[in-house]
Each structure stands twice: as C-alpha cells, then as structure tokens.
Amino acid sequence: MKQSPRVLGRPRHNENAKPTKDIVLETATRLFIKEGYKNISMDDVAKACNVTKATVYYYYPTKGDLYTSALIAMMDRIRLAILHILEQPSPFKERLEQLVEVHLSATVDIDMKNFMREASINLSESQLKEVHISENKIYQTIEQAMQLEMEKGTIRKGNATFFAHTFMAMMSIGYFKDGEGKRLFNTVQETAKEVTTFFWQSVHNNE
C-alpha cells in the first residue's frame, strides 16, 4: 500500500525522542526569556531546534501562538510548583516562606512583568485571554490554600482572594532593584523570610 505523503511541515516521528513540539516550545521559551519577544523570530527558533521553519509553523502557526504557549507552559509549571509546596504537611507559615524562596529562585532570570507587557502589546485578544486564564489559576491555587487555612483557624477570617493577591504582590518585591541594580535584601532566603513575616503579621489568627 502506498504511503500517504506527510503534511507539509509535519516532522518525522521518532518514538524514542522527546516530541518535537515540546522541543520547539522549550527552546522558544529560553530564547524569549533571554532576548524578548521582538528580538526572536520563528527562523531563530527553527535554527536553535535544528528543524525547518515549516516544522515550527506546523505546530505554532504564528509567533503569537508560540509566545502564548510559552507563557501558559511557564505559568503551569509555576502553579504546579506552588501546589506541591502548599500540599506539604509543614506549618502554613513555613510553606509560604518556602513558596517565596522557591518561586524567586526559579524565576530570578525571568522578567514576568516584561513578559506580560510584551504579551499585551503583541498578542490578540483571544491569546491574552488564554494567558490570563493561566495566570488566574496561579492565584486560585493560593486562594484555595488561604481559604483552607481560614477554615482551620490558622489565619484570621477574611477575603481569600484579597489575601492571595496581597501575598503575590508582596512576593514580587523580591524582583525589585534600585538604580544601581541592587535588591532590597541580600539573598532570596532573606527576602522570603521578610516577606512572609510581614504578611503573617497581617493574617495570623491570634485568638
């Protein structure tokens, strides 16, 4: 029986190799992190992956699609890491401190504000909606943990959404640098401790 011709741009499948789509996405994410959206072309991604440009376009029809997928994949990894920490049996305050430390350590080279700024400029309305859905899932994961700890009496009763957003906003202080590039605290560990302590003083149930 004669084999059907491959669809143009569809890569050959190798059962033992990592899926080409994953390789393209991972490579593109690294390039976007290092160079930014505007400075990376689909041709750059293809060359870095050692595949044809047609292959990249087969999986991601536009650079906007690729950037959207990169952001969503990044946020999904962040959410799963946060969930893993929050599900540990250690005291809630310790989990929050670990969350800040791990998150800041993992994203030290990622300018999320710039990522989102470039997304708002270059992505379509539907693509932005996809990104925001993934972003909201991160907040919802923390919000659910806050709600659970309220029910346990660990932290005072309040608006779990407000608590989650406040905590994330405080955590972002870890990215702050002054005009000379100096951070507020010397280490990620110190930042995690200061942020968590400050937050904890506001929400801890003292009854």
The overall number of domains is 2
CATH level-1 class of the largest domain:
Mainly Alpha
What is the level-2 CATH architecture name of the largest domain? Orthogonal Bundle
Tell me how many strands there are.
0
Mean pLDDT across the residues is: 87
CATH topology group of the largest domain: Tetracycline Repressor, domain 2
Structural class: mainly alpha
Instruction: Report the end-to-end length measured between terminal Cα atoms.
Output: 77 Å
- The fraction of residues in strands falls at under 5%
Indicate the low-confidence ranges by residue numbers. Answer: 1-11
The fourth-level CATH homologous superfamily of the largest domain is Tetracycline Repressor, domain 2
Proportion of helical residues = 55-70%
Helix-strand pattern: HHHHHHHHH
**Total helical elements:** 9
Radius of gyration based on Cα positions: 21 Å
| Dominant shape | elongated
* Largest sheet: number of strands, sense, barrel closure: none
Protein name: TetR family transcriptional regulator
Keywords: DNA-binding, Repressor
InterPro entries: Homeodomain-like_sf, HTH-type_Tx_Regulator, HTH_TetR
